[in-house]
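Changelog note: in this version the structure field was regenerated for every chain. One regenerated record is shown below for reference.
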Amino acid sequence: MEYGHKSVMLAEVLQQLISNTRGIFVDCTLGGAGHTKAILETIGAKGFVLGIDKDIRAINAAKEKLKDFSQQFSLIHGDFRYLDELLNSKVEKVDGFLFDLGLSSIQLDASERGFSYKKEGPLDMRMDLEQKLTAYDVVNSYEKKALSSLVYQYGEEKWASRIAGFIVKTRERNPIKSTTDLVDVIKAAIPASARRTGPHPAKRTFQAIRIEVNEELKAIESALWQTVKWLKVGGRIVVISYHSLEDRITKKIFKNLAQGFMCEAGFKNCKGFEEPFVEIVTKRPLRPKEEEIIENPRARSAKLRVAERK
């Protein structure tokens, strides 16, 4: 199976990201390499793209997909939260950063990765297959209070406490080993009347566990603060998010940077500077066109925000 998915809001990304066809661009979420390939085709022979991904399968597949651009790109297996470390000695200044957050379709569709509540698979959910913590560990070892907190915070699930309680009671008898086992527990926890409307009853809990396993929100915040020191004046940060938590963090960081504030993790110890770091280009997020949503339903929730280095 080809490692890839339909690149969301491709035309909008290219329009917002690229102003210099000889520039250096960093795709922090390589995934199926669709955005990277389109950027390479747009910038031509004198530009350069650096692609980053936690998933080694994405890196290996992209090498084949991008082989015709062998002189114009470099790929790094790594976590974009360590952006400074990854870019050090690779580039000096950058014309644009792209973050297409969340999962690629192939990760979601690969049952053995355990991301999908619609497919039977092991409780894994690791984007980086080399890391130790898995969804199995979270589900079977976290205390009830910690489980309830993460499902409520990361899944915005109002039945979080009840779901956590059912998980703990179930695993006391036998470990919860598969995605379908977990779905059954979640369905049992949520009253039937609440399951008749809205999204799949397991959607929010699976999202929450995935975010916990991969520390996704911490990584996003860490990386966005780091982009500023690498951007050229006029360079842009383009972020596509798919749920409110990602979008909220992006919006908040852009607002802080536009007001001249630089913060530490968790928005702590913010320091004010005389000049703003960025100008916010998208006062309201861009959304996918209806034609794209029809062709690719997974684009429906996408929001694209852009900031430009001052």
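Spot check on this record: The first helix runs from residue 10 to 17. The chain has two domains: 10-106+216-309, 113-214.
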